[in-house]
Write a structure and sequence with these properties.
- The protein has about 140 residues and is of the alpha+beta class.
- The protein has a single domain (about 5-135), classed as Pnp Oxidase, Chain A (Roll), CATH 2.30.110.10.
- It is about 30% helix and about 40% strand.
- It is built from four helices and seven strands, in the order αββββαββααβ.
- It has helices at about 5-15, 55-60, 90-105, 110-115; strands spanning about 20-25, 30-35, 40, 45-50, 65-70, 75-85, 120-135.
- Strands 2-1-5-6-7-4-3 form a seven-stranded antiparallel beta sheet.
- The two termini are about 25 Å apart.
- This is F420-dependent protein.
């Protein structure tokens, strides 16, 4: 499967699950970092700093993988392999930083997080899926 289906979008959008982002360091080591994200138009979207390890890695190699899981029985996960594109358009960065902040910190703090993370030097990252794996209710 190469697209986010309705059941995958519902799973990814439920609550405040973080995604674990897999990317490759300059020396070839695989790295993983948690990211806050939203689903938008069939893509996963998150913010990161241009000069962070993630930002530098994405500039070198846009291939990434994100994995979200539900660690409660009966256990489920979604893995999204894809290609990342970045934007430094401040209006876009701030709009998504606000949306992401609202998801994870609540609507009352959304604007605060938008202002904090929608600044020069921040990137908006869009991951377009190339392969999607899902496994729901593994222990049933």
């Amino acid at each position: 499967m190469t697209e986010l289906t309705e059941d995958v979008i519902a799973f990814l959008s439920d609550g405040t699950r973080t995604a674990k982002l897999g990317y490759v360091a300059a020396d070839g080591r695989p790295l993983v970092a948690p990211v806050w994200f939203v689903v938008d138009g069939g893509q996963l979207v998150f913010n990161t700093g241009r000069d962070t390890a993630k930002g530098r890695a994405l500039a070198r190699d846009p291939r990434v993988v994100l994995c979200c899981d539900d660690d409660r029985p009966p256990f489920s996960f979604v893995q999204v392999q894809g290609t990342a594109t970045t934007s430094e358009d401040l209006d876009e960065v701030r709009a998504f930083a606000t949306r992401i902040g609202g998801r994870y910190m609540g609507a009352e703090r959304a604007e605060e997080f938008g202002r904090r993370n929608g600044v020069p030097g921040e990137l908006l990252v869009r991951v377009t899926p190339t392969k999607v794996l899902k496994a729901f209710d593994l222990a049933d």
